[in-house]
Write a structure and sequence with these properties.
mainly alpha
């Protein structure tokens, strides 16, 4: 996994951990499985270093069950993440806004 994907994996893991600390919905083993699944999917992303945000990608590599779990975690952890990692959150928001402007006319990425 290259540096960009490795950094993204770390951020997703931090968001999963934040969710797990504040909610007791998933067991420790489910959290471990989810992290392993995220790592596998990031490593095998067909876009590689040019990977878009998964929510904007047309391919949708995640199985529906795992996608629902990740969405739930992101919806919870995303707004709270600024209190735990403000620098990473601001960097992510700036990157996302530039990504949206760049691909605004395409609706989805990876056609």
């Amino acid at each position: 996994m290259d540096k960009k994907l490795s950094e993204e994996y770390k951020i997703v893991c931090e968001m999963i951990d934040l969710y797990h600390r504040k909610n007791d919905k998933f067991s420790d083993s489910e959290i471990g499985e989810l992290k392993a699944y995220v790592k596998k999917k990031l490593s095998s992303c067909p876009h590689g270093h040019n990977k878009p945000f998964c929510s904007y990608c047309k391919i949708h590599c995640y199985e529906p069950k795992m996608r629902d779990k990740i969405r739930e975690i992101m919806r919870f952890s995303g707004p709270r993440f600024i209190f735990y990692r403000p620098g990473k959150t601001i960097k992510h928001l700036l990157h996302k806004s530039s990504f949206i402007r760049k691909f605004a006319s395409k609706k989805t990425y990876g056609k």
